[in-house]
Prior knowledge:
With 71 residues, the chain is an all-beta fold. The protein has strands at 8-19, 30-39, 42-51, 54-55, 57-67.
Amino acid sequence: xxxxxxxxxxxxxxxxINHKQPAFPGNVITITATLQEINNNELxxxxxxxxxxxxxxxxxxxxxxxxxxxx
Length: 71
Protein backbone atom coordinates (compact mmCIF):
# COMPACT_ATOMS: atom_id res chain seq x y z
CA UNK A 1 0.00 0.00 0.00
CA UNK A 2 1.32 3.41 -0.90
CA UNK A 3 -0.15 4.89 2.29
CA UNK A 4 1.97 2.80 4.67
CA UNK A 5 5.54 3.45 5.74
CA UNK A 6 8.38 0.93 5.38
CA UNK A 7 8.09 0.04 9.09
CA UNK A 8 4.36 -0.68 8.83
CA UNK A 9 2.28 -3.64 7.64
CA UNK A 10 -1.38 -4.18 6.80
CA UNK A 11 -3.28 -6.78 8.85
CA UNK A 12 -6.75 -8.04 7.96
CA UNK A 13 -9.30 -7.40 10.70
CA UNK A 14 -12.60 -8.18 9.04
CA UNK A 15 -14.29 -9.82 6.09
CA UNK A 16 -18.01 -9.69 5.28
CA ILE A 17 -19.46 -11.56 2.30
CA ASN A 18 -23.08 -11.59 1.13
CA HIS A 19 -23.51 -14.58 -1.18
CA LYS A 20 -25.86 -13.92 -4.12
CA GLN A 21 -25.38 -16.71 -6.70
CA PRO A 22 -23.11 -19.70 -7.23
CA ALA A 23 -19.93 -19.84 -9.24
CA PHE A 24 -19.21 -23.14 -10.98
CA PRO A 25 -15.99 -25.08 -11.66
CA GLY A 26 -14.22 -23.48 -14.59
CA ASN A 27 -15.84 -20.06 -14.13
CA VAL A 28 -13.48 -17.09 -14.19
CA ILE A 29 -14.23 -14.85 -11.22
CA THR A 30 -13.26 -11.17 -11.36
CA ILE A 31 -13.06 -9.40 -8.00
CA THR A 32 -13.11 -5.60 -7.85
CA ALA A 33 -12.02 -4.01 -4.57
CA THR A 34 -12.65 -0.30 -4.03
CA LEU A 35 -11.32 1.77 -1.14
CA GLN A 36 -14.38 3.19 0.64
CA GLU A 37 -12.91 4.92 3.66
CA ILE A 38 -9.86 5.45 5.82
CA ASN A 39 -10.46 5.83 9.58
CA ASN A 40 -7.19 6.61 11.36
CA ASN A 41 -5.18 3.42 10.68
CA GLU A 42 -8.10 1.31 9.34
CA LEU A 43 -8.94 0.83 5.65
CA UNK A 44 -12.38 -0.32 4.50
CA UNK A 45 -12.81 -1.67 0.97
CA UNK A 46 -15.91 -2.90 -0.83
CA UNK A 47 -15.51 -6.13 -2.80
CA UNK A 48 -17.60 -7.20 -5.78
CA UNK A 49 -16.95 -10.67 -7.29
CA UNK A 50 -18.55 -11.36 -10.67
CA UNK A 51 -18.64 -14.09 -13.29
CA UNK A 52 -18.86 -12.02 -16.46
CA UNK A 53 -21.61 -9.48 -15.73
CA UNK A 54 -23.27 -11.77 -13.15
CA UNK A 55 -22.87 -10.64 -9.53
CA UNK A 56 -22.11 -13.63 -7.30
CA UNK A 57 -21.50 -11.77 -4.02
CA UNK A 58 -20.71 -8.44 -2.43
CA UNK A 59 -19.09 -7.44 0.81
CA UNK A 60 -16.24 -5.60 2.46
CA UNK A 61 -12.77 -6.09 3.87
CA UNK A 62 -11.17 -4.25 6.76
CA UNK A 63 -7.47 -3.85 7.35
CA UNK A 64 -5.42 -2.00 9.96
CA UNK A 65 -2.01 -0.50 9.35
CA UNK A 66 0.26 -1.30 12.29
CA UNK A 67 3.98 -0.95 13.12
CA UNK A 68 5.85 -4.15 12.23
CA UNK A 69 7.42 -4.20 15.70
CA UNK A 70 3.98 -5.13 17.12
CA UNK A 71 4.10 -8.54 15.40
